[in-house]
Specification:
2 domains, 0% strand, mainly alpha
């Protein structure tokens, strides 16, 4: 044990910051890529082997899925935090208790919301932007995939609990298995059996079920208990409240972003199914930058927290700067590709010339501006790691709010381009705000470092 702790300290204090950050970030980046593959592969098969209207229907369902991700990640973040702290204190019982609470209440909450949606599915789909011409496709996809939502969210909690216990490689393998099965089942159900959009939803659902089963099997072994409430693991209202409070900021942020999808769909549906399809592809593709950024944030956050707690403020400043530069090394080339070669990207998803034409203008606004938003995201996570939760919450929630305000303002003036502009303006303006905040915090870190040296 002392040797492991010595190795951990040596790793955390390594002078090679780029390597240190990347080693910490790669598992999270890989997991993000795997999660992204589910919807991306579905979209590719649907665009080429079903119908462009079905591709537009996927855009409508993104908003519904994002809402469930908000609930799921609320429980994932809160549960993982409790498990990590309990394991750090060698309190296995508390870790098990947190896992049971997070797992069952996540499935219960998403199950109740799913049931309510299924009973009012037509109303829900209209509210999130479904057109009459794509309603049947939207309904087929939603009424299939919604049955798997509680299983998917419960599986995400289980995979998170594997990661929280330190087995990041195992968590990555479990998630990757689902992506591989999804690709195989998409080909079988859509191309082989001709089941169309319902086949795509079923392929994703079954892949999520398999991830759930693999994760459950791993958790039962790692935590060595039957994963249920018992005399030893009784319901604790305080623990459930703590899980919800810890996960609420992340869940709230994702929930507000789901609102931008809904508003975007509602404004864009008047321009037809081709525009909705282009919107769907653009948002999925732009997420590639954010997958790397989210992974980079996951890699830098514990390093910032560790060094900030150790009063190594100069090193904190270097970690933030290095993380942003590493992120830009990936984001800028992708942003240039989004600007200069959007047609080639869209051809991977659809043969429709009209969708590709609309998608080019959308990608040049949204895809390129996502580079700017990646800096905002890293700024928010840096603030969280240093304990500035209120400021980080203000900046993170300002992004979707500005997007929504932009849509309301620009769309009546510029049509569908107004929707693309709303993302670009919000991302760019908040990047400038983030840079100002980073500069201000950088000055404060320098001052704290000087104070620390003077005390020593």
């Amino acid at each position: 044990m002392p040797m492991l702790e010595e190795r951990r300290q040596s790793f955390l204090n390594s002078p090679d910051l780029p390597r240190l950050i990347l080693v910490s970030a790669i598992p999270a980046i890989t997991s993000g890529v795997v999660d992204m593959l589910y919807n991306t592969i579905d979209a590719m098969f649907i665009g080429h082997f079903v119908d462009n209207k079905a591709l537009a229907a996927i855009s409508v369902n993104i908003a519904i899925q994002a809402a469930f991700f908000a609930v799921g990640f609320l429980f994932i973040i809160g549960t993982n935090s409790n498990i990590s702290r309990a394991m750090g204190a060698n309190d296995l019982l508390r870790a098990r208790t947190a896992l049971v609470h997070g797992f069952y209440f996540c499935m219960l909450t998403t199950g109740l919301v799913t049931g309510a949606m299924l009973m009012n599915i037509d109303f829900v789909l209209i509210q999130v932007g479904a057109l009459p011409e794509i309603m049947q496709f939207s309904k087929e996809y939603a009424t299939t995939i919604l049955w798997f939502v509680p299983i998917n969210c419960g599986g995400l909690v289980l995979v998170g609990s594997i990661r929280a216990k330190g087995f990041t490689d195992l968590a990555m393998k479990v998630s990757l298995s689902g992506a591989i099965f999804n690709i195989i089942l998409d080909a079988l159900f859509i191309v082989g059996f001709g089941w169309g959009i319902r086949g795509a939803a079923l392929a994703t659902g079954i892949a999520q079920l398999l991830v759930f089963m693999f994760a459950l099997r791993s958790v039962l072994k790692l935590y060595n208990f039957p994963l249920r409430f018992s005399k030893e693991i009784a319901f604790q209202g305080g623990l459930l409240k703590d899980i919800i409070q810890l996960g609420l900021p992340t869940g709230f942020r994702i929930a507000i972003f789901s609102l931008t999808y809904i508003i975007g769909n509602r404004y864009l549906r008047e321009f037809g199914a081709e525009t909705l399809a282009a919107y769907s592809i653009t948002m999925r593709t732009a997420q590639l930058i954010m997958v790397f950024t989210v992974g980079m944030a996951a890699g830098m956050q514990p390093l910032i927290g560790y060094n900030y707690g150790a009063n190594k403020f100069g090193r904190v400043k270097k970690i933030i700067r290095t993380s942003i530069l590493l992120n830009l090394c990936f984001a800028i080339p992708l942003g240039i590709t989004f600007f200069w070669a959007p047609a080639q990207i869209f051809q991977l998803f659809t043969p429709s010339i009209e969708t590709i034409k609309i998608g080019q203008e959308a990608m040049r606004f949204i895809g390129t501006a996502t580079c700017a938003y990646s800096i905002v995201f890293l700024t928010v996570d840096s603030l969280q790691a240093m304990g500035f939760h209120r400021l980080s919450l203000v900046v993170s929630t300002a992004t979707p709010i500005l997007i929504c305000v932009g849509m309301i303002t620009f769309t009546p003036l510029f049509g569908r381009i107004g929707v693309w502009m709303s993302y670009s303006v919000a991302y760019t303006s908040l990047m400038l705000v983030a840079l100002i905040i980073l500069y201000r915090e950088s000055v404060k870190l320098d001052q704290k470092q000087l104070q620390t040296l003077s005390v020593e």
